[in-house]
Write a structure and sequence with these properties.
With 460 residues, this protein is an all-alpha fold. Helix content is 78%, strand content 0%. The chain folds into two domains: 39-222, Growth Hormone, Chain: A, CATH 1.20.1250.20; 231-445, Growth Hormone, Chain: A.
Length: 460
């Protein structure tokens, strides 16, 4: 393997270690032991849930190809997953608010375990069912757990500032360290032990089962709005009214969709971008490098969030601009660096420059997750938290499905240019959110009054 990859990985490791070891009291939020016990319990469960997710990611496409399916059929399976998340996500989010977030987290575990079991079958219809179940599980993963955490945090009387600790640690562990370890563990199962491409899915099911046991034994239930007179349609209406009537919530949803849409597009494009002529690149090692960069971002975010005087809405403008510049690099290098046209070989100079840019983007991803979680905890009303969070994912899933369907229709530089524009627009919307947040006071009382008024006609 080229020394360049080790230099990038080693450099990121040194920076992350330096940031973590150099933290002072200013970079930490002091909290009592009772909160730390609660936080550590959640982090253990969240890490197990993310391990169950990360173990599957690198081997889904490979497994389908081993079963003899072509690129088009595999693309349809992926579209089914995102389409399922789009169609059923809002429904399961609303059920989580009404029936209980703990119950929804358990449902996530069961649904994803069933999805893993379907991977043992080479039948296309069974695999399609697995993708549908996986899409439902993904919606629960990115809404139910955060909703449970926020509600339980405030129910126990903890300070709102302490949420930042849990958010930043969850991303540092779940989207960084656990992702790297899952990639290495999956590689051992498939390549070293020769257990085949289904083995990571079996391991994922085991981690999910352990996490579910911890949830059932140690978590208490909490709800958004458990009133008996609120049916599913009413919950949809209340969530839609909240988004339409509060510009802050609408802006937050647009920002999230623009960033995550660009992020998922990047996931599909980084491989052909770094090896346009079939260059031999170490995919697993590069993936681990990206996750290390994400850990760097979450470490930076923990320092930013620890400073109460620093507004999340303010520094995220800069993060989005840096993200836009990072994904614009493939476009810039295509004009400034003449491609060699040689097939095979090691990574090109253009690819090396892009790899550094992609690591910068992943660091921005590491900052984005705990920061968007913090803003969601501030702006999204508790009564419909899971429902609204899954509303946000509808445009995201539509966008990803369109990209998947047309991935061969446009040149890579056009796709990256589009993502860069989206991220720049996100920075402008973030600026607007900052202006509104500074000019308005919290509207919790207004929200409660509006919710009651909107619910009356449907309950009559």
């Amino acid at each position: 393997m080229e020394i360049f990859y080790f230099m990038v990985f080693g450099g990121l490791t040194a920076v992350v270690a330096a940031l973590e070891l150099s933290k002072t009291s200013r970079d930490r939020i002091n909290a009592p032991s009772v909160f730390n016990s609660f936080k550590n319990n959640y982090l253990l469960v969240y890490s197990l849930m993310m391990a169950g997710d990360w173990l599957q990611g690198p081997y889904v496409y490979y497994l389908y190809s081993q079963y003899g399916f072509g690129k088009g059929e595999i693309g349809q399976l992926f579209i089914a997953g995102f389409g399922s998340s789009m169609l059923f996500g809002t429904i399961v989010g609303s059920l989580a608010d009404k029936q209980g977030r703990r119950r929804a987290c358990v449902t996530y575990c069961i649904t994803y375990i069933l999805s893993c079991i379907t991977k043992h079958s080479p039948e296309y219809k069974v695999l399609m069912l697995g993708r549908v179940l996986g899409g439902i599980a993904t919606s629960l993963l990115f809404s139910a757990f955060e909703s449970w955490l926020v509600a339980e945090h405030f129910k126990r009387g903890f300070d709102q500032q302490w949420l930042s600790i849990t958010f930043s640690k969850a991303i540092f562990l779940g989207n960084g360290l656990v992702a790297i370890m899952s990639g290495l563990f999956g590689n051992v199962l498939v390549d070293t032990l020769g257990l085949g491409p289904v083995a990571p899915f079996d391991a994922a099911a085991c981690f999910l089962a352990i996490g579910m046991a911890i949830i059932l034994s140690s978590w208490t239930e909490n709800y958004g709005d458990a009133s008996e007179n609120k049916d599913l349609l009413t919950q949809f209406k209340v969530a839609a009214v909240a988004i339409a009537s509060d510009e802050k919530i609408a802006l937050l949803g647009a920002i999230q969709s623009l960033f995550e849409g660009s992020m998922y597009t990047f996931v599909f494009l980084w491989t052909p971008a770094l090896s346009p002529n079939g260059e031999d690149i170490p995919h697993g090692f590069i993936f681990a490098t990206f996750m290390l960069a994400s850990m760097l971002g979450s470490s930076i975010a923990s320092r930013l969030l620890a400073r109460s005087f620093l507004k999340v809405e303010s520094y995220m403008q800069i993060v989005f601009v840096i993200s836009a510049a990072s994904l614009l690099l493939p476009v810039i290098t295509s004009f400034l660096i003449v491609p060699t046209g040689e097939k095979g070989g090691g990574i090109s100079f253009s690819g090396s420059v892009q790899l550094l840019g992609f690591c910068t983007f992943e660091a921005c991803v590491g900052i984005f997750w705990p920061s968007i979680m913090k803003m969601r905890s501030q702006y999204i009303p508790e009564e419909a938290r899971s429902t609204i969070m899954n509303f946000f994912r509808i445009p995201l899933n539509i966008f990803v499905c369109v990209v998947l369907y047309n991935v061969d229709a446009f040149p890579i530089i056009v796709m990256f240019g589009m993502c860069s524009i989206f991220l720049f627009v996100a920075s402008l919307l973030q600026r607007r959110l900052l202006v509104i947040a500074e000019s308005q006071k919290p509207r919790s009382q207004d929200w409660a009054a509006m919710k009651d008024v909107e619910a009356e006609p449907l309950n009559a």
